[in-house]
Specification:
The chain is of the alpha+beta class and 683 residues long. The protein has 16 helices and 35 strands. The strands form 9 sheets. Strands 13, 14, 15, 18, 23, 24, 31, 34 and 35 form a 9-stranded mixed sheet that branches. The chain has a 6-stranded mixed sheet with strand order 3-2-1-4-11-12, sandwiched between helices. Strand 7 and strand 8 (137-139) form a beta hairpin.
């Protein structure tokens, strides 16, 4: 009998923990969803793995790879819950954390506070060293001085230490010297050295990233160690953590650089959407991931993920390679409320998994988006999660009714108002990631996922004039599924500012050669088969005199041609800003993405069954559509839909992990991978 080989992806969100497992021999997909554990994420993770293993009959020893998207680091940053942290920096830069960029968080709000400084001033220490702007030593470092500082840090009981020295992105020698002393005299402290985390300029952002890494480091390390030991106790030994750049890293690397996991879950969803759309040759997509707490929006252009190194997490800027994802507080648990002007607002406050929306009957009293959907008839009136989550529809009517009374509106119109406000918020953010970047959203395919994504998809299509929307086979678990499609990935970025000219080929080759050498070391450390290695190249470029740069993907064989590099930059610049210039172009950062262990899961194709889907109808539901009118929506069981089936709207398609609404002027066609493509009937 052939040994089973199982790959598992687990994504932890603010409301639910999603689990996808795939049998690598047959391509059979196994899914499970359960509420996230409030105090220890690993409890729900391990419980879910045990349940799915028991249900589908495999053992921990059968798991070839366990992949995990986590929000431990994100939550610690958002809640300001971290370790007592000390900082060692260059003389004169002790207060850089507080000075920052001298920008107000909100330009016209004079009362807005900056994010709290995570290192108290008495734990910030200066050393008399200095490198110039080329990375050459100007002032030598003193071992005796560093040792005294490390002793002082230990005496004050700091749990974590950060080392960020001026211009170390060009020359890490002094940081390495300090690192060695700390490891020798205070090995139990969690240590972050900025040049290990980032080799890019902009001192403040590099400092913030390093501080955040140490601030959350001890908590994340504790969680990862606990998870690793618990998984090993049930036979799972190959564990990887999702990186914000859409790739995997070993669990040991995640303990060293926990800040790299800050967008771990949302990144996996985008990768999953990209993988599914590649199968059906959709290269330009807008991903809309609507969960219980937030909505995450991203772009894939010509099959390539949009990337960014500049992110702000709870007001703290960091320079970490990541998928460019825009997040707003709009999810199924987002609460409707009335502002001081009597205007209806929705979010960002969320009911979370506990007490959850009022219909969960766990103590929640305020009207959430989920409650509005229940009132309108969009959601099952008795239970969600395939019957595992009983709901009390009367609670939703009471919660929305209380809000309606304050607004002096009808119950059903208030529920529609909650949905309309949340959709307006999401549409505005879609425009920010498309129109603001020079893209026409109507030319993209919308990919809706997350537990609430398919509920909003049809409405977003109408409001944004988008022509088609893809709802994946398991939309509520796509982030977990995306983990199954990911590969080992590490981004290497080095700042080197230079003018683009005809005689710069040698420098270009030298800079990329150094990155390739570093990537080869990483490939070897991770024991990645040479046949399973690949690289992607990019440059961050700008016009000379500008303060910000744009990322330009490049091909390796074009790197020696200044003309082709300028043409690629000009095309990207014109798309963003609708004009270009003949000014000198500068290269600011050289980048290389190393990808390894490229093994995609087997995926089964459903045999063609024709357009007739009447066998999947399980009933009908009275749905309020506005203006005092109701329509009967046919109810479909997603598990009974097959390749070629066409669902004519108005319809509601139910499944364990989500519910899809199809409006009266729309239809949904099921493809061979059991995705549904929603289009207009006249389209």
């Amino acid at each position: 009998m052939e040994k089973r080989t199982i790959r598992i992806g687990v994504d932890v969100g603010g409301t639910n923990t999603d689990i996808c497992a795939i049998d690598e021999n047959t391509g059979a997909l196994m899914v499970y969803k359960l509420p996230s554990s409030l105090y220890d994420q690993s409890a729900a993770v391990v419980e879910g793995v045990r349940v799915i293993a028991g249900e589908y009959g495999f053992r921990g020893e059968d798991v070839s790879r366990f992949m995990h998207g986590t929000t431990v680091a994100t939550n610690a940053i958002l809640e300001g819950r971290g370790a007592k942290t000390a900082l060692i920096t260059t003389g004169g830069f002790r207060d850089l954390l507080e000075i920052g960029r001298q920008k107000r968080p909100h330009l016209y709000d004079l009362q807005a506070d900056k994010a709290p400084t995570l290192v108290s001033r008495d734990l910030r220490f200066e050393i008399t060293e200095r490198l110039d702007y080329k990375g050459k030593t100007v002032r030598e470092i003193s071992r005796e001085e560093v040792e005294k500082i490390v002793d002082a840090i230990r005496e004050q009981g700091a749990e974590a230490v950060v080392v960020t020295l001026l211009n170390s992105y060009l020359n890490p020698e002094n940081e390495a010297f300090v690192k060695g002393i700390i490891q020798e005299k205070y090995p139990e402290a969690f240590l972050t050295v900025s040049s290990d985390l980032s080799r890019q300029f902009r001192e403040f952002e590099r400092l913030c990233g390093a501080v955040l890494n140490s601030f959350v480091g001890p908590e994340v390390k504790k969680y990862m160690n606990n998870l690793k030991k618990t998984l090993e106790s049930i036979g799972i030994t190959s564990t990887y953590i999702n990186h914000s750049n859409g790739g995997l890293m070993s669990i040991d690397e995640s303990m060293k650089f926990p800040v790299k996991t800050a967008l771990s879950g949302p990144a996996a969803g985008v990768v999953g959407a990209q993988y599914i759309c590649d199968l059906i040759d959709e290269k330009d997509i807008i991903t809309v991931d609507i969960g219980g707490t937030s909505t995450d929006i991203s772009l894939v252009v010509d099959g390539r993920l949009e990337a960014s190194d500049e992110k702000a997490i709870s007001g703290y800027p960091v320079r970490i390679p990541s998928i460019d994802i825009s997040t707003i507080g709009a999810g199924g648990g987002s609460i409707g409320w009335i502002d001081s002007g009597g205007i209806l607002k929705v979010g960002p406050r969320s009911a979370g998994s506990y007490p959850g929306p009022a219909c969960y009957n766990l103590g929640g009293k305020e009207a959430a988006i989920t409650d509005a959907r229940v009132v309108l008839g969009h959601l099952n009136q008795e239970a969600l999660l395939g019957g595992r989550l009983p709901i009390k529809a009367e609670n939703s009517r009471e919660a929305v009714g209380a809000l309606a009374e304050k607004l002096n509106m009808e119950l059903l119109e208030t529920a529609r108002g909650i949905i309309a406000v949340s959709n307006a918020n999401i549409c505005r953010e879609i425009k920010n990631v498309t129109v603001a970047k020079g893209y026409d959203p109507s030319e993209f395919c919308l990919v809706a996922f997350g537990g609430a994504g398919p509920l909003h998809a049809a409405e977003l299509m109408e409001e944004m004039a988008i022509q088609k929307t893809l709802v994946p086979k398991t939309p509520g678990l796509l982030a977990a599924y995306g983990l199954l499609t990911e590969n080992m990935r590490r981004d290497f970025v080095q700042t080197y500012v230079m003018d683009l000219s005809e005689d710069c080929a040698a420098i270009l080759s030298q800079q990329f050669g150094a990155l390739e050498a570093a990537a080869d070391v990483w490939f070897d450390e991770e024991k990645i088969d040479p046949a399973m290695r690949s690289r992607e190249y990019f440059l961050d470029m700008r016009y000379k005199g500008q303060n910000h740069e744009i990322r330009v993907p490049v091909e390796r064989d074009a790197i020696g041609s200044a003309e082709s590099l300028r043409a690629a930059f000009t095309a990207a610049y014109e798309r963003l800003y609708s004009f270009s210039s003949k000014d000198t172009v500068q290269i600011v950062n050289f980048g290389l993405s190393a990808l390894g262990d490229i093994v995609y899961p087997a995926i089964t194709e459903d045999p063609y069954a024709g357009e007739d889907c009447s066998a999947a109808i399980i009933g009908s539901r009275h749905v309020y559509v506005g203006g005092g009118k109701f329509e009967d929506y046919a109810l479909y069981d997603r598990e009974l839909l097959h390749n070629g089936n066409v669902v004519q709207g108005p319809a509601i398609v139910e499944q364990m992990d989500s519910t899809t609404i199809i409006l009266s002027n729309q239809k949904a066609t099921v493809d061979r991978y059991l995705n549904m493509m929603i289009t207009r009937k006249d389209g």
